[in-house]
Write a structure and sequence with these properties.
Length: 180
């Protein structure tokens, strides 16, 4: 967000848990940033097709307690958490691997059968390429939003518009599917 405020980037995408929406809306207003909702979604559990839970239509957080969670390295909410991880489902899990790079995350999920990740819905071709499945998992607060952010008064270039069109096309590919 600060890169948009400082003018280093023209566009950004932020993701937050809906429970923290007021914090983000206040922060954006304070920094005079505009936002447009891309979508609202629930996290799914992503795992190998060979994971012991892969054939379950719905997974609960207790089912995951013996698995290894792969966590995207950036899990802190600035200014709100004072350096603590943001609330995530299955927080009592002890075994975690922190990785920033999505390709490496998918490789580990494919090759270490006891691993899983919390993710927004993934396109079918990516699931097939890495032999992964995604499953619904209900837990309190499982509502997230992706927001496009930009400076107040910014005029989108033709390249920006094409980029935004691609974002919405990707969102549409996964958002109208039923996940069980």
């Amino acid at each position: 967000m600060n890169n948009i405020v400082d003018g280093k980037f023209n566009l950004g995408i932020i993701r937050y848990q809906v429970a923290h929406e007021q914090y983000f809306q206040d922060f954006l207003a304070e920094k005079q940033l505009c936002s447009d909702m891309i979508w609202e979604f629930e996290y799914l559990v992503l795992m190998s097709r060979s994971h012991k839970l892969a054939n379950e239509p719905v997974v609960n957080t207790d089912d995951l307690r013996h698995s290894i969670e792969i966590v995207h390295g950036d899990t802190v909410i600035p200014y709100l958490s004072l350096g603590k991880d943001k609330a995530q489902p299955g927080k009592s899990l002890r075994k975690r691997i922190y990785l920033y790079e999505r390709g490496n995350q998918f490789e580990l999920l494919s090759n270490i059968l006891e691993t899983f990740m919390w993710v927004s819905p993934i396109p079918k071709d990516m699931l097939g390429r890495f032999s992964l499945v995604q499953r619904k998992c209900d837990f309190p607060g499982n509502k997230y939003k992706d927001m496009l952010i930009y400076q107040k008064g910014y005029h989108f270039s033709e390249l920006d518009k094409r980029f935004i069109d691609k974002i919405y096309a990707s969102k549409n590919e996964v958002s109208f599917k039923e996940y069980n």
